[in-house]
Amino acid sequence: MSLSLVITLLNNVTVNVALPELSKDLGADNTELQWIMDAYVVVFGGLLLVMGALGDRFGRKEALLAGLAIVGLVSAITAEYATSSGQVIGARAMMGLGAALVMPATLSVIVVVFPPEERGKAVGVWVGMAGIGAPIGLLVGGWAVENFDWRAVFWINPPIVALAMGLTVLLVPSSKDEAENPMDPIGASLSVGALGLILYAIIEGPSLGWTSSRVLGLGSIGLILTFIFIRWEKSTAHPMLPMDFFSDRGFTMGLVAISLAFFVMFSFMFTQMLHFQLVRGHSAFDAALRFLWLPLGLMPSAANSDRLCERFGNNNVVSFGLSLIGVAMLVFTTVERETDYTVLAAIFFLIGIGMGLTMAPSTTLVMDSIPHDKAGVGSATNDASREVGGAFGIAIVGSAVNEIYQREMEVPVGLEVHSEVVSESFPAAIRIGNELLALGDEMGHELIVNAESAFVEGMTGAAAISAMAAIINAVLVKLYMPSRIFGEEAPDGR
Hints:
The chain is an all-alpha fold. It folds into 2 domains: 1-126 and 134-183, Growth Hormone, Chain: A (Up-down Bundle); 246-494, MFS general substrate transporter like domains (Growth Hormone, Chain: A, Up-down Bundle). The protein has helices at 2-13, 19-26, 30-58, 60-81, 85-113, 116-147, 151-155, 157-171, 185-208, 213-235, 249-279, 284-289, 293-312, 314-332, 341-368, 375-408, 419-424, 426-438, 443-480. It is globular, with a radius of gyration of 22 Å.
């Protein structure tokens, strides 16, 4: 299951480092490149609840195997036969569908199989593996592109999928909702529309503008569908996601903590890839290597969080974890272009520890708050909160970085012809600066220095938003999250 989880998260980011090669080989424009990234996330996030419910109804092991098969087969076909950006976009959408089957199944199987006294440890390991997915994805993607080409990013999946499927067949027990309650097709349709449109609006907001008619229109429709979904789930006899789950503070506060933690983590990783590659001059692979301090902090803290919760209570451990993240982001606001990497490594490590202490207890609380026959839907809700929180983080923090960059960017005298482009886009400023240097124009150096300084100002300024989000979250968790320890059953049998 750990392998399956890593595959899902790995595919979320590996293709990002291959975008320049895809653009060159397939002639993909900026819009197409954006959809190569977004198709996976939108389909994955939009289908999570539905696929979690299908796993509960028809079998979680079967859902896991089906999802893995889709990811592996589509990856192999894309690597071998794709000749256009449209085909790659379609493939990424299909891989998102497969991932939506895999992700809820991994956690729901853990919840069903492990007894209450061992569940906290098992979830801690699950969170640890989830935490390494994105950094490993960047690392593997960078290595593949540097040593081969963009197709290698897709060839990575089949052998790992084959191994994961073999282990799943041998080791994972079958489980499903024995009551075999009827499906909720209306609720399923509403959830797909709501989550898909909201995620799309969040992702597209920074590039299209938050006030654009498309973002406002589709985002509004998504919110309306969310309201209708809630009303429907409250009224139907067999809801896909019973709304009374949210009356349990463990369930609700766990989701809030997870969402805001990934708000910080995803936005931080997004800015740091630009920082390491464009400011510090590292390759994609070398940049990814510098992320490894984060999982090195996350994995042991997640694996041992159950012991800390037994002693101090969930709310105190999670609140402390969020506080560590907040402190790390506050320290990051002092980073400059010349700051030694050891300082950055310490920040990454501290964020990793905080994420581990936040994610594992919060996830366990979410899953312990619901009946086992809804484990797939509960897991999907947990995963959806991660996706929405991460998407919001990248969108909001990314917008803040851009706004500060545009305000701070000084275009050198004599380069006014490039003013609009370099003032709006940091990567474009670096590219134009390097082109000028290649032509022997030393003004390129001044342009690069100014752009790097403006970006660092934006990056560190926006970090204050993440710090504030983490600290506010820590206070809310301290006040409202139950201190119930791992191994205790939820009230009224849930």
